[in-house]
Write a structure and sequence with these properties.
19% strand, single chain, alpha+beta, 4 helices
């Protein structure tokens, strides 16, 4: 059973490495929209990698709710509104190696509905 967990971690690490290699290769200057999750919480940030600053951040701890699909949709909407207020409309989506389904997909879809382009 332990071998399966090691394989999952390794596959996630490979997905994340592929993303960063592509980002470096393209020399992207857009802010990075980072969505990460734990078993209980969900975190979304918009980062400016050139300055090393956080433009906007929302997480389920701030909302005092445990992460699920409806909370993920709420987080996606809030992060898009904060990004618009900060003058950011285009971002690069970084899912931290997670698969694009469930809560990650819900955050992305809600942010797109609110006008964030990626």
């Amino acid at each position: 059973m332990k071998k399966i967990n090691v394989d999952r971690k390794h596959r996630k690490s490979l997905r994340h490495t592929r993303f960063f290699n592509r980002l470096k290769r393209e020399g992207n200057t857009k802010p990075r929209f980072v969505v990460s999750k734990t078993n209980a919480n969900l975190f979304a940030q918009i980062l400016n990698d050139q300055n090393g600053t956080v433009i906007a951040a929302v997480n389920s701890l701030q909302l005092k709710k445990q992460a699920n699909i409806t909370v993920a949709q709420e987080i996606g909407g809030l992060i898009a509104e904060k990004a618009k207020a900060a003058g950011v409309s285009e971002v690069v989506f970084d899912r931290c190696g997670s698969k694009f389904h469930g809560q990650i997909k819900a955050v992305a879809d809600a942010a797109r509905e609110k006008g964030l382009v990626f």
